[in-house]
Amino acid sequence: MITAEQEELMREQIRHHRCSDRSPTLEFDSLTVEFKSRRGTARVVDRVSLQVWPGEIVGLIGESGSGKTISAMSALGLAPRGASVTEGDVRLSGESLISMSEADLRKVRGDRLSLIPQDAMRALNPVLRIDKQVGEPYVIHRGSNWSSARSRVVDLLADVHIPSPADRSVEYPHQYSGGMQQRAMIAMGLALEPELLIADEPTTALDVTVQAQVLQLLREIRENHGTAILFITHDLGVIAELCDWVYVIYAGAIMEQGSVEQIFDHPRHPYTDALLKSTPTVHTVQDELMSIPGQIPSPFSLPSGCRFADRCDRRFDKCSKEPSMHAVSPDHMARCWLEVGE
Amino acid sequence: MTSPLVEVQSLSKSFTGSGPFWRRRDVRALVNVDLEIRAGETVGIVGESGSGKSTLLRIILRLMRPTSGRVLIEGHDINLLARRDLRLMRRSVQAVFQDPTASFNPRQSIGAALAAPLEVHGVGNSVSRAEKVQETLDLVGLNGSFVERYPHQLSGGQRQRASIARAIMLRPKLLLADEPTSALDVSVQAQILNLFKKTKSELGLTCLFVSHNLGVIRYVSDKVAVMYQGQIVEWGDSEAVFSNPRHEYTQTLLAAVPEANPHNRSKGPSLVS
Ligand SMILES: Nc1ncnc2c1ncn2[C@@H]1O[C@H](COP(=O)(O)OP(=O)(O)OP(=O)(O)O)[C@@H](O)[C@H]1O
Ligand SMILES: Nc1ncnc2c1ncn2[C@@H]1O[C@H](COP(=O)(O)OP(=O)(O)OP(=O)(O)O)[C@@H](O)[C@H]1O
Ligand code: SF4
Ligand SMILES: [Mg+2]
Ligand SMILES: [Mg+2]
User: Fold this and answer.
1) Which residues in chain A are contacts of B271 at CB distance < 8 A?
2) Quick one: A52 and A34 in the same domain?
3) Domain that holds residue A233
4) By alpha-carbon position, which residue is closest to atom 3 of ligand 2?
5) Rounded Cα–Cα distance for residues A118 and B55 (Å)
């Protein structure tokens, strides 16, 4: 059992574990995003706090519909129509992005931070050649001319293994396969070696060998430029391979966080545990995959207690109240009543 | 032995290349591909990104004409079908596309989009159609509230599930699925994969399933085709391909699968290639 002082100490150690002095590159401070509609208010991101320190690669995993994309987009001021940040803040190296003017935000986006969006095919402009799109940040943010931008583009496309990059750079998005479109977006995201990179499921359309090369590129950009990376993915293998720290989100709230070793070796939250057990593997034949029964609660009517309760097989009487985040070891926290002593 | 449901015979597809004409080279998306799918079987396709998987599916769906070669469904060349047979084929062959956003009309609610195939083929009345929509959404783990929503109001994975629901509305004989679970978390993915398996055993669904996730392919497929640069370089029973891969590219693929174990990190591949 852990006392309050011990826990406070552990929180301090957690901070220390990840970064001792500098301020985080990206910080979500109790970020809350809501949709208002005729049917009421949907709270899709609920007081999410997370940090990404300089040079750190942080994974964000969670159920489909749990608010990963919306929180990333809201942070960049790109929330969809109808969504608004109702509480909390997002800071880039200490500077609030939420209160920044649209003009300043536009300067920051693409220059100091870049986003690789979940839907590459939708993000690309169908009537603009690939080289124009990938090269644009150089021209806009670095004042480069088009001919030198073009040669950089060809290098970048080669980095992400587009075959015959010089010839294919002058094609249009519809001439690219799904994975090639995704790689064009990755190239664009890496172009300016930003301070912060948010990558929303960037490798879903890539075969595992190209994926491995892209992950290597990300490691290099972090080594060489200290880029902080927030990596949203469903692929637990990629998390294990790439990330230093992991946040697990469920129905809009962070349920567990910890070093990648802690999350995989000692998952403490029943949701994380179930996720780890649902993965199909290449190594064995499986008769039936485990899945978590039921559905994620609707953001219009979140339960008042633990939001995982109606699907949790370890639920007990305390779970009708909302648990808070508890430190369980110097590099690990979980939001579950099982972690709380008497 | 039953005759195959789908036969792909020396299929090739080239796209005119871009760039200045004196060094323009065509993109050879498919090169002499042969493939057979028997009724009730799930064939998995894995392969390099850009190796022609989506092109193959588009040709089988008649969305694109091959440069040469042909595709037979139940023994009939799909590009020579009479109008009536074409209608039947459209009904019994359904697809889940790699890009679920593009396949939905942004101005149509999910409920309307799912009911549309039933209406087009004159199935049931509006009440029974609404019930069927509800039932199918439930199968893919989306509750009733999604009927009224529009595509842009869904998360990536929710949209993908809506597109799976639409593809199975008419209970097709043949389902072509291009990366149908790429946007799903592993638990929802497990739910969908179990659904595929169940539909297959209960309704005899035949399925061509493209995925970059080798674990997924191993789990759902009876047979596996491995594609590389427009060709099928390895073909065989799923078990044989996974436990004893013969082609070098298959071996490379299997070796590159990231393991869900942070203690076994690879050093990362060398970037010189
Ligand atoms: N425009 C919108 N109007 C209303 N609700 C929306 C809208 N866009 C998204 N949502 C809802 O907000 C929730 C969070 O969506 P988000 O896209 O952030 O999920 P996600 O975690 O990225 O999921 P996925 O893994 O499937 O991409 C979902 O329940 C989704 O249905
Ligand atoms: N409409 C088109 N015009 C020109 N080239 C095309 C077109 N469609 C596909 N290609 C090219 O054909 C090749 C095969 O593309 P395809 O989309 O079939 O690949 P894929 O195997 O599905 O790849 P991914 O796994 O990345 O989705 C690629 O080089 C692609 O750029
Ligand atoms: S708080 Fe209770 S219901 Fe929630 S995850 Fe923990 S044990 Fe399960
Ligand atoms: Mg998303
Ligand atoms: Mg494809």
Assistant:
1) 159, 213, 216-217, 220
2) yes
3) 4-112+195-339
4) A175
5) 22
Query: Does one domain contain both A168 and A220?
Result: no
- Is the model's pLDDT at B271 over the cut of 60? no
| Burial class, B208, CB count within 10 angstroms (exposed 0-12 / middle 13-18 / buried 19+) | buried
Chain B hits for A163, CB-CB cut-off 8 Å, are: 50
DSSP B40: T
Q: The tokens of A149 are what?
A: 């931008």
pLDDT range class, residue A37, cuts 50, 70, 90: confident
Would you say residue B1 lies in a domain? no
What does pLDDT average to over chain B? 91
A300-321: pLDDT as tens digits? 889 999 999 999 999 999 999 9
B254 and A282 within 8 Å at the Cβ level: the answer is yes
How do residues B87-120 score in pLDDT, each as one tens digit?
Answer: 888 889 999 999 887 789 999 999 999 999 999 9
What's the CATH number where B161 sits?
3.40.50.300
Kindly determine whether residue A180 and residue B190, on different chains, have CB atoms separated by under 8 Å.
Answer: no
Domain residue limits at B29: 6-267
Question: Strand, helix or coil at B28?
Answer: strand
A239 and A327 inside one domain: yes
CB proximity B15 to A under 8 Å: yes
For the CA of B159, the closest atom of ligand 1 is 26
Give the C-alpha separation, A334 to B170, whole Å.
44
Atom of ligand 1 nearest to the CA of A72: 18
Q: How many domains does chain A have?
A: 2
